[in-house]
Design goal:
Layout lengths: L5 E5 L5 E5 L8 E5 L2 E4 H10 L5 E3 L4 E4 L10 E2 L5 E6 L2 E6 L8 E4 L24
Length: 132
């Protein structure tokens, strides 16, 4: 479910990103990341089998596998993100942190990575933390 039009296309940050097709006002809901709700145990199993994964923990025991979800599955990380995620009743909602211009990549802060030692951050922001 998308409230504002977005497009998936190549990103200067990493792979495919999500880009706004119209102005998105500050604090407005952009949409919900869609996919399959699975157990965290199943999510970890799937993560071991894939080189790229689209998994979001929605509780201590459940996760959203958005591999086959909508365009919002391509949200890239930025240390100075333009949007944030809100998890509500196993739904992952995306909100604009600030006004987002048409053509701008929509990014979120992934927070802590489940990867040992973290992952290298590629956001390119001058305040980059270097690791996710």
């Amino acid at each position: 479910m998308l409230k504002y039009p977005v497009a998936s296309r190549p990103s200067p940050i990493e792979g495919t990103g999500v880009f706004a097709l119209s102005r998105i006002p500050r604090r407005k809901k952009i949409g919900e990341v869609t996919g399959e709700i699975i157990s965290v145990r199943e999510a970890r199993k799937r993560a071991r089998l894939r080189c790229r994964m689209c998994l979001i923990d929605v509780s201590d025991t459940r996760a959203l596998d958005c591999t086959r979800g909508n365009a919002l599955r391509h949200l890239n990380h930025s240390c100075r993100s333009s949007a944030f995620l809100r998890i509500f009743r196993e739904r992952v909602e995306v909100y604009a942190r600030r006004a987002i211009r048409p053509g701008e990549e929509i990014t979120v802060d992934y927070g802590e990575s489940p990867h040992s030692g973290g992952m290298k951050c590629r956001c390119g922001h001058r305040d980059c933390r270097d690791r996710i």
